[in-house]
Description:
Blueprint: H1 2-12, H2 17-41, H3 43-58, H4 62-84, E1 100-104, E2 123-127, H5 134-157, E3 173-175, H6 180-202, E4 209-219, E5 238-243, E6 250-252, E7 255-257, E8 262-264, E9 271-275, E10 280-282, E11 285-288, E12 290-299, H7 305-318, H8 322-335, H9 340-352, H10 358-374, H11 379-391, H12 395-406, H13 413-417, H14 424-447, H15 450-470, H16 474-491
Antiparallel strand pairs: 1-2, 2-9, 3-4, 4-12, 5-9, 5-12, 6-11, 7-8, 7-10
Helix pairs in contact: 1-2, 1-3, 2-3, 4-7, 4-8, 7-8, 8-9, 9-10, 10-11, 11-12, 11-14, 12-14, 14-15, 14-16, 15-16
Amino acid sequence: xxxxxxxxxxxxxxxxxxxxxxxxxxxxxxxxxxxxxxxxxxxxxxxxxxxxxxxxxxxxxxxxxxxxxxxxxxxxxxxxxxxxxxxxxxxxxxxxxxxxxxxxxxxxxxxxxxxxxxxxxxxxxxxxxxxxxxxxxxxxxxxxxxxxxxxxxxxxxxxxxxxxxxxxxxxxxxxxxxxxxxxxxxxxxxxxxxxxxxxxxxxxxxxxxxxxxxxxxxxxxxxxxxxxxxxxxxxxxxxxxxxxxxxxxxxxxxxxxxxxxxxxxxxxxxxxxxxxxxxxxxxxxxxxxxxxxxxxxxxxxxxxxxxxxxxxxxxxxxxxxxxxxxxxxxxxxxxxxxxxxxxxxxxxxxxxxxxxxxxxxxxxxxxxxxxxxxxxxxxxxxxxxxxxxxxxxxxxxxxxxxxxxxxxxxxxxxxxxxxxxxxxxxxxxxxxxxxxxxxxxxxxxxxxxxxxxxxxxxxxxxxxxxxxxxxxxxxxxxxxxxxxxxxxxxxx
Length: 492
């Protein structure tokens, strides 16, 4: 009975809507059985068993995690085919390399599903010609705008909200599945254009593809520009991004690809497609409105179990079930052992466990080091590892880690001060890394020789001056005074 209870609780977390309600009812029946056991065998005995049942709920085997991941994939495919149908089997497609501009992010930079994409998994393709007409673009914008406005009006009429999470309307986006005209248009275009194009570019079979999700997003819908996204992977095997607005309608924008170290832009009706595992982020705009259609495509024959087990781990981590999260993360690494994001999140698990101890901290550091080894561009992991090294009083090692991070072209002074660099999260990380590097240099020099000061202080001074130009503050100015004193002392 306890095994059944543990299984049902795990399955509830994977359901939604009516199915989730039915499973909750079923689980209540299981606990009525547990209550009867309490009456028959005595409280103390069942109390011990309940503690063991809790351990079962917090841990899953690799096989169970993979089975849950496969179940998620099967359900998403079923919903996708029900909403958008199945594309016909296609032998020949009309596109060639001459129809696209190509950008390679390099091997091992396309995410854990790189091996599941038949060809060009590391390549970002941009169409040279528009694939969606100007009229269709405007009609999609108009329908999405009306849907967002209706959703906001509905929220005003609701006295109480069931969730604190923002709705699609509050985010300035609309799901295509809720747009009658847009849904029918997309169903036809997926079969006639988008799926055949993905078959041509990536070697997948069009009749095996379906949509996990489709969004129309309005950057700047609420006025006063929009923020940049964090760098992320998509919940898809392949992703498509269609520009619905002319570039003249907004300032800024584009998509930042971390491995390229640059933003890509496109004109109205043009398309960008890439592996969903490539790290990227939508860039904010400073004025105007930028509307895009984003499609998240999955493949019936490719379940992406590494990504799905990672997702299950993140879901458990958000609920505070760290042991369960670790089990799912380990299952994900069993499928794809070089997934840098899983190592980073596993490190967060170790670092969050209470009470903290030396072994957990060491494991967290090892995970972040592995993250950087697999994907050196992960600035968040580099900065996090540097902070942990400072906390462990390994200041010189922390400074070496920061020196490496700040040597990347995307962290150069030119990019740091450029007004054209709209992707603010990168500037924020660069600023924090510079300040921490200055702190480390000052600490090293205060306890080291004058020779060490002559090596470390010039770079620290340059970094501090860069930060003062961006965001002057009394704290930074006091650091500069301390640095100047140390510099004079080192010369004398």
